[in-house]
Amino acid sequence: MKYVWLSCLVLLASCASKETKEARLAQQHCGSCHLFPEPALLDKQTWDKHVLPQMAFRMGLDLSPLMTLDPADAPFVIQALPGIDLVTQEEFESIRQYFLREAPDSLQAGPAFNSANLEQFEANALRLPTFEGSPVISMITADTLSQKIWISTRQSQLLAYDYDWILRDSMQLSSPASSMLFRAGVSPLVSAMGIMDPNDQPKGQILRYNGQGNTELVADSLKRPVHVEEGDLNGDGKDDLVVCAFGNYGGELVVLENVDDGYVPHVISFLPGARKVIVQDFNNDRRSDILVLFTQGDEQISLMTNAGNFNFRITTLLRFSPVMGSSYFEIADFNQDGNWDILYTNGDNADYSIILKPYHGVHIYLNDGRNQFKESWFHYMPGASKALARDFDKDGDLDIAAISFFPDFEKNPEQGFIYFRNDGNGFSPQTTPLGASGRWLVMDALDIDSDSDLDILLGALNFNDAIPRELSTQWVSKPVDILVLKNNQMN
Q1: What's the rounded mean pLDDT across residues 433-450?
Q2: For the sheet containing 455-460, what is the strand order?
Q3: Cβ neighbourhood burial of 355 (10 Å; 0-12, 13-18, 19+)
Q4: If exposure means fewest CB atoms within 10 Å of the residue's CB, which of 22, 116, 258, 480 is most exposed?
Q5: For residue 111, what is the DSSP state?
């Protein structure tokens, strides 16, 4: 009997040692390039069938996914892969066993919540006469200087409407636009993505739109630029450009230095997934700094403090798991203490883990005054893709408008748009049935009816994958391009 117990103890010690080794390998190799993703974040099947095979590809073990890529994309993807295998096949199998052992069989859905009827806004579905077929809007943005609403489509149209939805200008771009930058007295800048779908081909451009269908090339050979901002980063009195070249496996955050005969690029980061930047002087040293959200792989919000000569000291303020699906951020002072806080959304659900996740939603991180951030509020919103912090009801505090590109279409399709009213003690969600009338990719806020309060525009891109048949039929029979949310605030 004594020897049986000793054998059991040896076996248990051996199993424990093996499990410890697997955990150590997983944390070492899966936390070297990004934050370690806890196994509990995904279910076993999603790890096994989708995420772990992608890990093997990115670690250089299995290059077969290259055969599924567009041949034009493959050379650029190869550049983003390691030159040698980062792990052995035996080590990867140990990592795989660790994730499959520790992951749950399924994820619990996020907490159900009740929402009031949308009272702050009157919702109106709009079908633009210039559009045909399914809505495929890639951008909607308001130029409040000239009182125009700019829209781009997946078919690379660029259209300008006045506030009464009369078409005032249009042109055909070489690729879909994702953002525009407006400044007084200067022609607007346009980010043209090159290819809208995930890719690494440097076909994107920054254009200057000079009116009446006339554009001027500012920069090209960019990997899917999705956002452009400007600021004088070297103190020479000329505005430089900061471009989020999102890419896919690879990407760049690029500063385009404004010189006499054009722009000179300075790559600040080679991380993929640069989604949005804010350019301003964050430390009061009279130099423009860069605050950026990266949403692919090493997901993070980082402050790049200007050290001169296009050098930056990088401080990571918030870092997220690579499966979080970071999608957007803004800064605002939520608690009115004089410090800028962070409004952040995560809900990208299109790649390798297409399941509802209880940690998708809208977050507020408060700044303690030393740029240390702590989450103060979270609201579950599956597929959350963008949020705006504005005082929509004009009561002196900030409310939140949020959209989701991947809501729970089976149970709560109306939660593609949620208005969170700040009542002073928290945020109360409001929804409208018309929130289910489209798949909202883009959003902007403006005073469209000149009554001194902010209205909201949502733009639809109606991909029909994983959409219930009844809802898909509705989208086809009654297509809605724009959801106009007119503020009911009484002045």
Answers
A1: 97
A2: 121-126, 482-487, 455-460, 440-446
A3: middle
A4: 116
A5: P
